[in-house]
Amino acid sequence: MHHKPASSLPAFGNKADSYDAHALVQKHAAEWLAQWIPSASEIDCLELGAGTGLLTCHLADKFKHLECTDCEPTMVALCKNKFPTATHRVRDAWAVQPDRGQWDLVTASSLLQWAHEPNRVMQHWQKLLKPHGRIIVGFFIEPSLPEMLEVTGGASPLIWRDSSTWQSIFTSAGLEIVRMESDTRRYHYTSALSFWKSIHGTGATISRRMMPSQMMRFFREYELQFRDAQGIYATWTFCRVELQACA
């Protein structure tokens, strides 16, 4: 099922300093994706949407050449300060890429779900690969945050797509799925407010601003509907996929 997306873009660059403190889910997603990253040193690796470096820490000093990129200059500067041995550049992951056929590995964590035109994006990424190159990416899929969607009436900062939809996107972009897995996890919070802060603290927001009365209603309804013995909860579904260009 698709949900109605927000009209505004997430403000990740504005939250660079606070991102890591709120990004436990994204940290776990990067760790899970890193299990599939090859260990061969003679690899030219491009990381897209590197952000503060949650995946970069699993890539640094591992490859012949590692280039970490993000569209937000503040994120690029922060990541460069953490991992100075890598190359760091500002790059729009959604745009046509200039360095075609130069990369053995293209990777990204917690990025692809934000693509408004994923078919076109995957075509661009496919053209980055050397012969026999791979794309290994992790992202979030439906069902993710179904609790929030229910309380907000479907308002979401992005369009959620399920596993079968993503499979169709990859194959239509001329990519072969080598392997693909998903993992649904439940995260607990002390209150609906703490859950809300964890979302906004990373820069992800919904488009409409809620009035104080609407916010109080959201918190009340969320806590009434989505509480178990461990507290308030939110569900995320991780997906990881390894792709190669079709022969």
Textual characterization of the structure:
The chain has 247 residues and is an alpha/beta fold. It has a domain of 172 residues: Rossmann fold (3-Layer(aba) Sandwich), CATH 3.40.50. The protein contains nine helices and eight strands. Strands 1, 2, 3, 4, 5, 6, 7 and 8 form an eight-stranded mixed beta sheet that branches. The radius of gyration is 18 Å and the shape is globular. It starts with 18 loop residues before the first helix and ends with a strand. The N terminus is likely disordered.
Keywords:
Rossmann fold, alpha/beta, 8-stranded mixed β-sheet
Mean pLDDT: 92
Residue share in helix: 25-40%
Silhouette: globular
Tell me the name of the CATH homologous superfamily of the domain at 15-145 and 159-188 and 235-245. Answer: Vaccinia Virus protein VP39
* Helix segment tally: 9
Radius of gyration: 18 Å
Report the major sheet: 8 strands, mixed
CATH class of the domain at 15-145 and 159-188 and 235-245 reads Alpha Beta
CATH topology of the domain at 15-145 and 159-188 and 235-245: Rossmann fold
- Give the quaternary arrangement of the chains: single chain
Low-confidence stretches: 1-8
Helix and strand content put the structural class at: alpha/beta
Q: What is the first-to-last residue Cα distance?
A: 32 Å
For the secondary structure, the number of strands is 8
The ordered H/E elements are: HHEHEHEEHEHHEHHEE
| SS strand fraction | 25-35%
Which CATH-level-2 architecture of the domain at 15-145 and 159-188 and 235-245?
Answer: 3-Layer(aba) Sandwich
